[in-house]
Amino acid sequence: MTRNRWRRSGQRLITYTIELTFIAAISAVCLAGSVRPAVAATDYGAPQPAPGVAPPGGYSAVITSQTITPAGGTIGPVVVDGGTVTLLIPAGAFPVSVQLTVTGPKLFAVGDAGTAGYKAVAGVGIQVQENGSTYPGTFLKPLTLTIRSSSITSSNVVMGWNGAAFVTETDTTVASGVAVVRFDTDPDFAVLSPLATTAAAIPDATKSVTGKPLMGEGILACALIVLGASGLAVGCRKHARA
Q: pTM of the full predicted structure?
């Protein structure tokens, strides 16, 4: 009787163990099926390098980076290389939210931007990204960039990096202290100023005097002295005869 009781207890234990093992296996399979891989969130972190050849000066120093919705907005004014920059994004310029980053160059490295007789006095880079990648194509409406600096004059020109070289930006307005450029892609910009001319080329500048006029003036002075002496001698003779 006791032996049969132990036999039945052993059978029940084995049965319970098999059932628990089966339940544990089923639970593990269901749990694995319910876990889904995480979806990467939209990344608006530091901008990735733009494709193509990097422009002189690098344009890699991040000044500010902001998310812009299709409603548009304004970034700045922010200080870039001693000047101030303001960027106006009109409503409808982008159909989706984008990350817009303003960067600054090393002006000494920009140099003349490939234009002999000029030097860079201001510069700013604009990068537009959608979901962490460079925004494709052109903007639906042009953006307006205003650069203010005491180094800017009406004789300055605005250049834009096209991926291989700096080229003249045509849709610009330049006056004393300010340069305004409108654009529908995101190049890097440089404001160039002509190198200073010599004093001789400046209108109404004081002219230097050479030695030749001085020599002529000396000869004239000697002649006047001789004439004066001769007149004095004639006067003395007339006075003696009298």
A: 0.61
